[in-house]
Amino acid sequence: MWNPSGPAPRCWVEGSSALKVGAWPQRVPGTVPPVTRFPERLARPELYAAAYPWMAVSRRLEEQLIELFQKGLARGTVTLSIGNEATTVGMALPLRPKRDVVSLLHRDFGAHLVLGTSPYAMVCQYLANADSPTHGREGNVHHGDANSRRFPMMSHLGKMLSLVVGGTWAARRHGEEVFGLAVIGDGGSSTGEFHEALNLAAVQRVPVLFLVENNHYSFSTPTHAQYRCRRLSDRSKGYGIPGRTIDGTDPWKVYSAVWDSLAAMAESPGPVLLECMSIRLRGHAAYDKAEYVSGQELEKWLRRDPLPSTRRQLLEISGFSEARVAEIEADVEEQVRAAVADALRAPRCQATSQEWRVFAESSPAPVKPFRMAKAKNGEAVQRALAYLLENSPRALLAGLDVGRYGSAFKTCKGLFDRFGADRVIDMPLCESAIMGFALGASQVGAEPIIEFQFADFSTETVSQLGLNAGTWYFRTGQPAPILVRLPCGGGLTMGAFHSGEYEGLWSQFPGLKLLYPATPQETFEALVAGFYDRNPCLVFEHKLLYWSTSGPIDFDGDLTAVWRPRRYAEGSELTLVAFGAMVPYALTAAEGCGRSVEVWNPFVLEPMDLGPICESVEKTGRLLVVQECGPGQGLGNRVIAEISRSCAKRLRAAPRLIAGKDMPVPFATELESYFRPNAERIAAGIAELTAEDRT
Ligand SMILES: Cc1ncc(C[n+]2csc(CCOP(=O)(O)OP(=O)(O)O)c2C)c(N)n1
Ligand SMILES: [Mg+2]
Fold it and tell me: Residue 592 domain-assigned?
């Protein structure tokens, strides 16, 4: 029990492996009571005593940050939680750091402190110095500790919600009694991902508390321009989950509602939607004077300022004396002063002293070999998936219709019956949230394999996969091992929205690895090596190749040997490089052309290693590249540029690209044939190029 007149215990801050700082516990004993986490419950007097010091530190630190911003020492978007402290501290107090899965927002300063960040680390983050939790790599609010399950936010509002769903789901699947806390604003609640994440959590019965901080504005946009329902918690009905709206300016009300939600979720797993009606006593960020908020409205809000009202409760309900509160405030002042002074003395970031790796290191031990005399590509996919689910208990396969139906192209046939519904998961139709789910799950020990029904639908996840998963390791130092499967390409008369390849698009995002196999052997190897790699790996599976060609699979278990370009035929007059379904056409053309042609598939498109292909061009002096998509969409021109630079002196003719037309893939068979390159066009290219010799 908290005894306001007894000796005050030391501040409770759980250590974090990502943070080397943690100045607070050593520096200031005596003011902050230990935090009692769920399922223990604080009584109201205890709660105010627990909350006030954190709220006061949060407020004072932010006031300092405004000054630092005005002096030009803190840069970027300094968003402030001033007015929101009752919500940030009240919601964080029951949670268990390193156990519950959390994603906080740009107005949750106090929650970061309660869940393990020190004031020193927070100031360093805003000053972007060498001691900042992101080592200066990310802006003010985009920090957290992925290793402790406090996922750093990405800027794109709404996107973090599904990560909490995935992380919580994965921890639960591994037998941990864990909850999620996913925070969003009134503005962020209008995003598609808000709906996707809530729906996904409801369907999968994942105990995530979705907490909406409704502070009446999204930057300058008032809520009447944001939504039409009376309360945002009314939306819970649409998801078949409980929802509630509370006053977010009283930490006791927030704490109690959060605690009750955790208890309800413990009783019956599934999400809860909680709307906290909060206030924003400053502009959107330090640069915003908030002239769009009327004086009357601001006055009304100031009367509800949570800091003075919690102070009053401390005196009236918790029984603290004025002198005791003053003592707390003096300690808070000292903590803040010391944190700012120390942070200002910390060294600046140096580009030369940082490691700039975009990919997490992967040097996997050999795995079980696999052999099969003859398989089609689609079968190779199915066998690789079965192999992974069998050999890695943490592997899960998720996507649309991958369950009993066996996926649209039947590449997942039989896996549901063999491995069960919690490992082969039919997802709702929400590609972006599925990818967020996978990223979150990958942080909590799961090893997700995600199938897009068609590569075309991967464009739904440009932010989630390209920006969030792709930058995850760079930002957090934690690997994000996710295998992504993209059935892609044309030739099946499916039109513009079901025939794209998109390897060019996905190559634009640092941090993603890309593999484009053509044979059953390569398909098996790409999936297995992509899975065991510690980074998000995308495997392009050309649909036309699924059930057309066949060949042996002879995988010796050496994963490191997989990451290299593939050569199919040796030759001395021309090097022919082909991607995906262009490989069989290239081989046909090379065989029948009467020339000595060496045929290659780059296979690893990112990080691309063209060394062996350069050696080939050094020998042949000619380069012809074939890709299915249009000239601007694929990677053929990049291959040509890089090889031209490296082999300029040895080229006997200007390299050429044979590509699809620069247009969306048309539907009708005759039109699609006009669009796609074929063996005849490649043979003509070989003839033209071998006829040239400028040496
Ligand atoms: C998808 C997306 N669009 C735009 C922005 C730019 N932006 C940053 S904060 C913000 C306002 C968000 O309002 P709300 O969700 O109500 O949260 P609040 O800032 O009020 O706490 C906007 C528009 C963003 N971060 N993400
Ligand atoms: Mg808002």
Answer: yes
Q: Which atom of ligand 1 is nearest to the CA of 186?
A: 16
Give the bridge partners for 182, in sequence order: 103, 210
Q: How far is the CA of 426 from the centre of ligand 1 (A)?
A: 32
CB 535 within 8 A of CB 473: yes
**CATH code, 612:** 3.40.50.920
431 and 570 part of one domain = no
- Count the helices and strands in the chain (H runs, E runs): 24, 22
Q: Is residue 229 assigned to a domain?
A: yes
The question of whether 174 is a catalytic residue gets the answer: no
Alpha helix segments (H runs only) across 508-594: 520-532, 543-546, 582-592
Q: Is the CB of 432 under 6 A from ligand 1?
A: no
CATH code at 183? 3.40.50.970
- Dump pLDDT digits (tens) for 614-645: 999 999 999 999 999 999 999 999 999 999 99
Give per-residue pLDDT as tens, 371-405: 999 999 999 999 999 999 999 999 999 999 999 99
Smallest-distance ligand from the CA of 142:
1
Q: Which residues pair with 277 in a beta bridge?
A: 214, 247
Task: Assess if residue 352 is contained within a domain.
Answer: no
* Range in 127-141, 441-455, 648-662 the model is least confident about: 127-141
pLDDT digits (tens, 9 = 90+) for 560-606: 999 999 999 999 999 999 999 999 999 999 999 999 999 999 999 99
- Containing domain of residue 656, as a range? 566-691
Residue finishing a domain among 512, 541, 562: 562
Protein residue with least CA distance to atom 13, ligand 1: 218
